[in-house]
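sanity check this record:
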Amino acid sequence: MKKTILLTTILFIVALNQGMTQSNTNRYFTSGTEFIFSWASIEHNDVEGGNVMRFSGWLNLYGTFHFDFSKSFGLMTGVSLRNVGFIYNEQEAGLKKKYRTYNVGIPIGFKLGSMGRSHLYAGYEIEFPTNYKEKTFVNEKKEDKFNVWFSKRTPAFYNTLFVGVQFKYGLSLKFKYYLDNFFNQSYSEVNQDGITEYPYQNTDVRIFYFSLVINLFRDVHFNYTKEEMMKY
């Protein structure tokens, strides 16, 4: 997988460099927000299940640089800030846990179709978790809550893949899958009795989500104007 990602990145950089030298390349910047509906495959102590859908509308922001080499092909990259997590519900025990991280992401991807209207896009994004939050509820009552900056409870970064369809006037539907476990299984802490524990050692969580993406701005203009659409 690492070799595939490296090769994809190299090919992207080469194609982008060639495209930048072409005078007919259409370059522009879009920015906006994302509404995320996430799930997770959860395996805890060799038992699967317990997932509950999670909605995230705040705070998901992104900025994307586009390089359209023709009316039907383009590349993109940029930066994002994304609220990603999952909910674990163990009904028999009356236990519910909520986890989330704020991730800074750098995507690279390609686009196929009508660049000024509807098209497909796909690619890879590396995400760096910055702030970790964990909440615990017992019988629907909040028992514990904490958040940590740059916590070792998670990996240093996540490898993700995404695919989506872009509609005209800035709306997009996207699917994303996280290749890495949400937790760092090697994380340890010392409890009140002085015993070292590994709270995530037997937990494997792979998040995936569907989202509604809204391009609020293109360059300095709001959304897609009629004049910009006529370029294509």
